[in-house]
Amino acid sequence: MPAPIRLRELIRTIRTARTQAEEREMIQKECAAIRSSFREEDNTYRCRNVAKLLYMHMLGYPAHFGQLECLKLIASQKFTDKRIGYLGAMLLLDERQDVHLLMTNCIKNDLNHSTQYVQGLALCTLGCMGSSEMCRDLAGEVEKLLKTSNSYLRKKAALCAVHVIRKVPELMEMFLPATKNLLSEKNHGVLHTSVVLLTEMCERSPDMLSHFRKVLILVPQLVRILKNLIMSGYSPEHDVSGISDPFLQVRILRLLRILGRSDDDSSEAMNDILAQVATNTETSKNVGNAILYETVLTIMDIKSESGLRVLAINILGRFLLNNDKNIRYVALTSLLKTVQTDHNAVQRHRSTIVDCLKDLDVSIKRRAMELSFALVNGNNIRGMMKELLYFLDSCDPEFKADCASGVFLAAEKYAPSKRWHIDTIMRVLTTAGSYVRDDSVPNLIQLITNSVEMHAYTVQRLYKALLDDISQQPLVQVASWCIGEYGDLLVSGQCEEEEPIQVTEDEVLDVLEGLLVSNLSAPVTRGYSLTAIMKLSTRFSSVNRIKKVVSIYGSSIDVELQQRAVEYNALFKKYDHMRPALLERMPIMEKTATNGPSEIVQTNGETDSTVLDTKHPPTITQPPSQGNDLLDLLGGNDVVPVIQTSLPTKPPSAGGELLDLLGDLSLTGAPPPAPASVPSVPMSQPPFLLDGLSSQPLFNDIGTGIPPMTAYNKNGLKIEFMFERSNPNPNIAVITIHASNSTEADMTDFVFQAAVPKTFQLQLLSPSSNVVPALNQGNVTQVIRVLNPQKQQLRMRIKLTYTYKGSPVQDLAEVNNFPPQSWQ
């Protein structure tokens, strides 16, 4: 059989191939020849054939059939054969192969070979692909070589020991005696691998870490080595771009970081050397930047001095000016991690960080955006928001959602004024409205509602924004809501913050009707617009035009829009006397949560969502704060939550008694408990939302025989209970409270709360007012329903809060003397 071609010739032949198919053909032909040679047990050219197989393996072609030939080469006595055999074993074998079990004896023999280079081959192979079984069997030989005086073998044995520890952590203590003298070695290769071994042991075992800190006291030794590297002159063997052995310096800094973490003594011992490295390292080359970066990480991770931390942040600030994008990205990421602990030091580099927002690299822009938001505080909010809003205008679409969310949170937390807050949110909705979070619309509505003095300014700004662009749906929804609420202010031109515009009622209605028919409007937006038009029927004089618009959409193919229109038509036809009260302005709302979906809480502890006027009916809810108050009120866990009717708190007005009935309405399909005086009507398919309402009294006065009682009389405030019984369900006691004030000043912000044990159920309806007039000139009334199915004696605790002459007052009382007729 002719001699096979050499590896060099094979490489040259393969490189002449013009197509992939031609290359595959060459490889297949050569693999066939190699297989034939293996079958003939040709020992002469086995080494050459395995070398060619390894090259084919590097090209991505299968070479597994050469695994056994690698073992034969390892068993050979020739060094050239062993070298190719061990190389083939490292490339073609792994822990999942059973063949490597046959190698254990060969490696053990070679570890005890008289030639250091053969020993080095065995150490490299064991450190590369040794299984846990091989590591257990050969750990003793590795530990012996780790103690040898031969630097060539010690460095390879140290790396092999790292692999053994990773595979079999319980063998770590075997190598502990050998680590005592490793750092006294002069050879940099041994020092480097020794530091790697010590780092691995410290990371894997807290006991080892404590041993190296307290017993071996590694920190002074590492500091000495690092100081010698910094102060040593030029050494051609270790010099890289004018820096002595930067690889060893980086490894030492990483080990110092582990040793100094959460340890005062170790941190104190390394503060001086870290300062020297930070100030003496050359930054013109990338090698120096790598060392400085590791130094910064070490300073930030240990208990370092404040001056040293400022120095580290200044180094990162210089990195931001580097032309290399990778260095700038690393600096931004590191500053983002440290901004919470060293906020003021990072603030000094704010202008440089903001400049990174203009970088072309998307990764740098994202990190700069995140860091910019982290730097925002009450002192720089105006300047930072100006830069971030400019970034929002010009950034790519993938940044807009995160940027808009960040602007919202920062503005909510640090807004210098309500006008600035509203302007900022409107600017975001104008430029990136399609990317904002779902809760942005109700949050902005809540902000506008609470800014009473800004209503005219806000509705004028939003009206102008609608004239310019109706493509940003969240902006259109907020604008529609505000025009419906404050359209009279828009038409009257009462804006004081800027020059008022002259707008007629017809022009406002034209804009809202345009939103209803626009192809750009989402179904939700059309619902906002129709509701806004309906609200304007109580604020504008163009009622006939509004009736016509509403009636048109009574046959809309959009079910949501159709339902609204049908209900609004019913208001016009059947309940026109209730329309002004139903469509009056929303009261001021208090927000209980700042992030995520939030509830909006009204006075007297009642809840109401901003979508009451736009989309959904009122719901029976209870804010978490009130539940906690009631738990505190009873002082235990035997408490039932109070069911609050979700009605806006308002002064007495026409139709107020009928409005109170809305607390019993539900659009979810399940009819709520009806008051005793309301005629029983089928609720499965009501023709209209408001059917079933009447002007009859809320409860039958069948409990006139129950004597009233005084539940509270203190500081001029008197609370009386009047009792009635609900006709359909005799287990329900209806208590009407009458709050009177005999002092000379009004009691404002009056809130009455009550709680009962678990065996009862309690529901508080809306109070008639939150102001108790002075000198007994009027009463505040509120209805309480108590379900007592077990006919137990009624017990109740009440909580009263109010403001008297500008001072808040709060008091608790327990009511146990209910007349027996009220609960029997």
From TrEMBL:
Key words, A-Z: Cytoplasmic vesicle, Golgi apparatus, Membrane, Protein transport, Transport
GO biological process, one term: intracellular protein transport
Cellular localisation: Cytoplasmic vesicle membrane; Endomembrane system; Golgi apparatus
Domain of life per record: Eukaryota
Annotated GAE domain residues: 704-819
Gene Ontology cellular-component terms listed: AP-1 adaptor complex
Similarity annotation: Belongs to the adaptor complexes large subunit family.
Protein name: AP-1 complex subunit gamma
Organism: Denticeps clupeoides (denticle herring)
